[in-house]
Description:
The protein is an alpha/beta fold. The chain folds into three domains: 12-290, Alpha-Beta Complex (2-enoyl-CoA Hydratase, Chain A, domain 1); 317-503, NAD(P)-binding Rossmann-like Domain (Rossmann fold); 510-635, N-(1-d-carboxylethyl)-l-norvaline Dehydrogenase, domain 2, CATH 1.10.1040.50. Helices cover 47% and strands 12% of the residues. The strands form four sheets. The protein has an eight-stranded mixed sheet with strand order 12-11-10-13-14-15-16-17, sandwiched between helices. α10 (257-268) packs antiparallel against α11. The two termini are 23 Å apart. Pathway: Lipid metabolism; fatty acid beta-oxidation; Lipid metabolism; butanoate metabolism. Residues 325-504 form the 3-hydroxyacyl-CoA dehydrogenase NAD binding domain. Residues 508-588 form the 3-hydroxyacyl-CoA dehydrogenase C-terminal domain. InterPro entries: 3-OHacyl-CoA_DH_NAD-bd, 3HC_DH_C, 6-PGluconate_DH-like_C_sf, ClpP/crotonase-like_dom_sf, Enoyl-CoA_hydra/iso, FA_oxidation_alpha_subunit, NAD(P)-bd_dom_sf. It comes from Micromonospora rifamycinica.
Amino acid sequence: MSLSAPNEVVTRALLRQVTVPGLDRPAALITLDNGLDHTKPNTFGPAGLASLDEAISAALAADPAFVAVTGKPYIFCVGADITSLPALADREQALEIGRLGHRVFARLRDAAVPTFAFVNGAAMGGGLELALHCHYRTLSGGAAALALPEVSLGLVPGWGGTQLLPNLIGIPAATQVILQNPLTQNKMLKPKQAAELGIADVLLEPADFLERSLEWAAGVVRGEVTVTRPEVDKDMWAGVLYFARQTLDQRLHGAVPAAYKALDLLETAKDADFATGTAAEDEALADLIFSEELRSGLYAFDLVQRRAKRPAGAPDKGLARPVTKVGIVGAGLMASQLALLFARRLQVPVVLTDLDQSRVDSGVGYVHTQIEKAVSKGRMDKGTAAKLYGLVSGSVDKSAFADADFVIEAVFEDLDVKKQVWAELEKIVSPEAVLATNTSSLSITAMAAELEHPQRLVGFHFFNPVAVLPLLEIVRGERTDDATLATAFAVGKQLKKSSVLVKDAPAFVVNRLLTRFLGTVFAAVDAGTPLDVANSALDPLGLPMRPLALLQLVGPAVAYHVGGTLHAAYPDRYPVSENLRRIADSGRPIVVEDRINDEVAQLLVVGDRPLTGEQVRQNALDALAQEVRLMLDEGVVAEAQDIDLCLILGAGWPFHLGGITPYLDRTGTAERVTGRRFLPHGVAGLPA
Length: 688
């Protein structure tokens, strides 16, 4: 029975003997390298584990002073080759994958000579678990990503992570790394954080990391360096896990099996011997590998890692024009966030304009304040800060845009206002300058209709908060040309955003779907469904926030405005809720400290046909299925994958749903509502 994937890129474990000053015999240094550059990280499939096993055997046979494992430049190892998991034929093969990793890694933990992990770069999943099996760990300050992200995909750290980490750094910190971080937009640890938690024994500069690691290891072997680790407090173990389970229930409502499996394994780690704990990991992995949630997670991971980097329908990047100066119309919060982002990423002059000097000063002041905060928190050096201060300026005179290559507006969401802005600017900027609108719902084609050069207007829709959400909807109007579009995609890439090409249709992708979703929930409220029932109806999906919290984040006034735009375009599917208008007009928060505001609830006028939570949920899913099918039929995006990518990156929808279309497929909603699936059988799900 072969466990190897047919297209596995094998990570080889390359062994060499290294003479280290002060030691009477050489050290064995194993370097993990798949033969590709840093953009293709080391991973472990069965062949890679076999190579490591052989290298450890050869290393130990040479009677070394110590054994150390490191990685190729910038990369230690990012874990298991997850692309091979769908090819596993049965549960026994899944069990064997877990057992193989445990057996090979345990050789470093059980070795009679000291073993070291020299973590020179990114270490995630099984890569970090390999390091945890070593007796000691050095860490480069230049390591880009450190994490155990498995739960976000629908797995658990199944090669010793759930057993080793809590007994190394304590249960509170381990719970953060194994559960909280993966479920918080897959948050990574920085090297300093990892060292402070105790994951690494020493943090070293990247410039001469290997040399310093060898010296440090020699000091440990000679007894000159003593590594002390605080005793793990097991008295708080049960309490921490009880709180963590409550938090999972409140947030996920049982929707992510991997999170609960990880919690159970962390509980096992308190008292069980290592063999018992790792056997439990094997069983958990085998269960999860054949779950629908994992298949959706792998599908979502592939979208984020691959499709997001090669946007469907993007024109030839060679058509893109250079951008040497950026203009931003408006100086409010969104405009100020954009100014900081453009200055940081493009490193070109950015100028803000607004109606009066006080607004301009406020916008520039916001940028300066954010720069100062970054410096004070150690996230930016003073030299970079000084440069950014000089790049961002403001003016009440739009002639400051005369030499700008890229101008984006972030003004009030009104078509006439935006058309007036572009009419004024077209007389000032060069004919080649790209004009970009950050509209969330208005027509790019209508906005460009009266321009002399309508081909250079493009939609450039960011999501709030700009610095956090990676999605950028790039909207092509009917007359937007390829050069403008190519420039927009090039700028999006420089901004480190994931861009998706979207047809000019009302509210584009994310806002159109979220508005339909919220509209269904509010229709239930209007009919007489209690707010708390409607608000909790979607809990089984494990969404990042409940509908009313989402409404508050978006802003009831904004949601009502976007809903009005969509009602004008599709009145049969987007009714106007008078209750939403009442909430928007009140200006009061709908949720206070995670509870529905009674004052807002009293404003509502409702019917006498309340729905159950299950009915609300099914209505919302049916509406999403219908809207996704219509969007695909209209060609709003190229494929269903782009809709899922938009929801993952723009709305934070979780990997275990695969965005939304895999969930609609596997629950039968897609076929029942639209007559067919969105994705073929076996894509983001178990084979038929």
